[in-house]
Amino acid sequence: MTAAVANGHATPARGSSPGRSLVLRNLRKEYTPGKPVLLDVSVEFAGSGVTAIIGPSGTGKSTLIRCVNRLVEPTGGEILFLDQDLAKLRGRDLRAARRRIGMVFQEYNLVERLTAIENVLCGRLGYVAPWRAWLRKFPAGDIDKAFELLDAVGLADRAGHRADALSGGQRQRIGIARALMQDPDLLLADEPTSSLDPKTSVEIMELITGLAAKRNIPVIVNIHNVELAKRFAQRVVGMTGGAIVFDGPPDQLRDDHLKQIYGGEAWL
Amino acid sequence: MATTVESPGIRREWQRFTPRQRLIRYAFYLVAVAALIQSINSVDIIPEFLEDAPAQIVDLFARMWPVDWAYYPKTVHAALIETLHIATLGTVLALIMAVPVALMVATNITRWPALRLLGKFILVSSRSVNSLVWALLFVAVFGPGGLAGTLAIAFRSVGFVGKLLAEALEEAHKGPVEALTATGAPWLSLMLKAYWPQVQPSFWSIALFRWDINIRESAVLGLVGAGGIGMALDDALNLLYWDQVALTLLTIFSVVIAAEIIVTYIRSKII
User: Across the interface, which of B175, B184, B197 has its CB nearest the CB of A126?
Assistant: First the structure.
């Protein structure tokens, strides 16, 4: 197993901001007791740049990323981010920490019956009082920012359209705008391109990595498309069976590693 | 050339039911027939009255005709308006009371079993008591009139609305909820922005449906003194003024039809 782990961590391309780094220590998750999905994973993510997590379905990639913002409750271990252990937070503190972490989902997870701009504004729900959200009285600054983000993802003309009237690629753009609306210190993306066609997938990855780089936000992206991972990430983490078996820059990823990560070789 | 032909082999038999299943089915038929005979015996049908029935029906209709139209402006109109008020206010009150109970019962919102049990208890007690019985209780407490009727309608409707609303909440997609949780949204914002848009169509559909039912139910509440057109019907029946009974029944019939048309129209417009 150790043989496949590439020598040393990849150094991020740009100057890393240590404040935004994420450290997982012995992260463990068992959905059913005694059957761990994550086997005490320890890994560090630098405060900038794009890290792609690759691996077969059901190997714990999604669980790993969801443990970070506690959509999934870890069974054990530490999640160190912004000088606190996210695994220990509860209630108000947990919500405050979640505001700092944006997330993009495979199925977009937009509120279908709300308009595009309202979905983007939902990124501010951690900051805006519920009654203001209910009355749709978002602060003017938030509305300006929402329009700027719609411009950035190229959907300003769709602001008033309901989310269920948009195409898959457009929905994911709204999902990205919503995540960036949080002004996050970390961007998580859980298979953001799996429901999209190849061309749109590339566009979405360009958008995620480009917008995050401009804001110097570190990105952790789960992706099972190895080509996309190599193309957009400065670092690739390969997982199989709930453990990390490769960690290094994309150009060090060899067929041997892929064989170990995905099993078999007929597909290569 | 290798030709694969399924050899006929032994003849395979197929029967829909196993002998055991067949036995159970015959036993069921037997019990059903026995129950039917037993119940016919126990209702004590008096043959003379049964023979007499067609003549009685003709007689009843004869006494109902001509309909006493003058009774409408005198009594029925005011009673009808009261019935509509009872049904509408009762429905609004029921919706307000049902929302917290539905939130208590929905498994994806309330994780605490004791609270869910309490909510289910409220829903079941509301539904297991007929609105006429609720009306009798409230007439005893508040005296006869529209207030008792409104509360009877509301308390009977809570169970219905609460149950359907809880089911709608449970069917809400998890994705948007997850996404808004990830933004750090507090509980109330999740309810308003992740759940409410998803259950909104069901909510209005349930509200209209229940209003439609309540129009019908509130029409009979007057029989126990809880206000509305039922009181006019009760008076006419007690005084054997069949022409007035006919008018009241026609009025109820028209209002129910009208409510049905309105509900269908609004439903097609908003949902």
Answer: B184
Task: Give the mutation candidate from B173, B181, B183 for the A interface (greatest A CB count, under 10 A).
Answer: B183
The model's pLDDT over B126-157, given as tens digits with 9 standing for 90+, comes to 999 988 999 999 999 998 888 999 999 999 99
Give the tokens for residue A77. Answer: 């271990």
More confident residue, A248 or A10: A248
A-chain CB neighbours of B197 within 8 Å are 111-114
Across A119-140, b (16+ Cβ under 10 Å) vs e yields bbbbbbbbbbebebbeeeebee
Contact criterion met (CB < 8 Å) for B176 and A95: no
Dist CA B24 CA B97 (whole Å): 46
Judged by CB atoms closer than 8 Å, whether chains meet at A108 and B188 is answered as no
DSSP 8-class letter at B227: S
- Long-range contacts for B16-24 (Cβ within 8 Å, ≥24 apart)? none
* Full set of structural domains in chain B with CATH: 68-270 (1.10.3720.10)
Residue A230 confidence (pLDDT): 92
* 3-state SS, one letter per residue, for A116-144: HHHHHHHHHCCCCCHHHHHCCCCCHHHHH
Q: Do the beta carbons of residue B126 and residue B156 sit within 8 Å?
A: yes
> Measured between alpha carbons, how far apart are the two ends of chain B, in Å?
64
- Which CATH number is correct for A1-99+230-268, 3.40.50.460, 3.40.50.300, 3.30.390.50, 3.40.50.720? 3.40.50.300
Q: Domain limits of chain A?
A: 1-99+230-268, 111-177
Mean pLDDT score across all residues of chain A:
88
Q: What is the pLDDT of residues A13-48, one digit of tens each?
A: 344 445 889 999 999 999 999 888 999 999 999 988
pLDDT (tens digit per residue) in B174-227: 999 999 999 999 999 999 999 999 999 999 999 999 999 999 999 888 888 888
Burial A70-104 (b: 16+ CB within 10 A, else e): bbbebbebbbebeeeebbebeeeebbebbbbbbbb
| Sign (positive or negative) of CA dihedral A160, A164, A166, A168 | positive
Looking at residue A239, its pLDDT comes to 92
For the residues B247-258, what does the mean pLDDT come to?
91
The complex's ipTM works out to 0.87
